[in-house]
Amino acid sequence: MFFLFPAASVFCRIFLPAAISERQAAVCLRLQIQAVWLQSSALCSRKPAMPTVRFTESVSKQDLDALFERAKASYGAESCWKTLYLNRLPLGNLSPEWAERIKKDWEAGCSESSDGIFLNADGWPDMGGRLQHLARTWNKAGLLHGWRNECFDLTDGGGNPLFTLERAAFRPFGLLSRAVHLNGLVESNGRWHFWIGRRSPHKAVDPGKLDNIAGGGVSGGEMPSEAVCRESSEEAGLDKTLFPLIRPVSRLHSLRPVSRGVHNEILYVFDAVLPETFLPENQDGEVAGFEKMDIGGLLDAMLSKNMMHDAQLVTLDAFYRYGLIDAAHPLSEWLDGIRL
Description:
The chain is an alpha+beta fold. It contains 10 helices and 13 strands. The chain has 2 domains: 7-77 and 177-338, Alpha-Beta Complex (Nucleoside Triphosphate Pyrophosphohydrolase); 82-148, no CATH class. β7 (177-188) and β8 form a beta hairpin. α1 packs across α2. The protein is globular.
């Protein structure tokens, strides 16, 4: 059903003309993400050195095998998806349901070929406005749920903003969104732990599931470095004195089918080694509580499917970076394939 997706080939299919090589796609993608990442990293250039984090635990081959099988089953593109072209740029992925709905409801300027579905408008402001209108129509008809009244930026292959669009509309159109995730690490009684949040039972996505200490979407006009500080304050109660502890560490591409279409997102991952005296406290009602978890507890949570998908992906990336995943195991190669 699913296949593994090297980040470069996915980017080539989604963002760039078909004639461009996969190697060129990899260079373009990394340059785009690196430009944003450097701005985040620049904010950290004068921060104190991050303490060395060393875990004494190990992860068994049996557990790694199980985590790898779940990753393969959960992530990747489906062969039935169609590429969505906006003003001739390949910018999205459509599941069969949403492909049919778009063909039916787009008022003018829609065509289809073996390459995908093409929507045309009079420039990017008009395109953004028409997509917003279509999404709102679906929402009012009860076809598109989870309306947030919050806009995300849609960018071209060079990272240039084209227009903003209601975040709930990104999944039906399979458009590339951005999110931040923070790993909160703490040393307690000589052992390292992760602060893990439990999502509010009232959340629209993955209610009650375990999550990273903080995370969320990057709003229109916002930088990832700004978003992670905002989310850390709102979700975990970090104040400005703790912001210098937040470091950019990784970028991951999350691509998977979801009930509302296609989840297609760049995850900007940050680590923070927090003081043992710090106790996270939610401020916005989106987190039911926090728990300090060791490696064994995190493995149990992931293997029992109690952790939300992207939080698990971010946690696996942390396991890899901190030497808990054998470099020779296929899971390591898989993680390398989604790292940008």
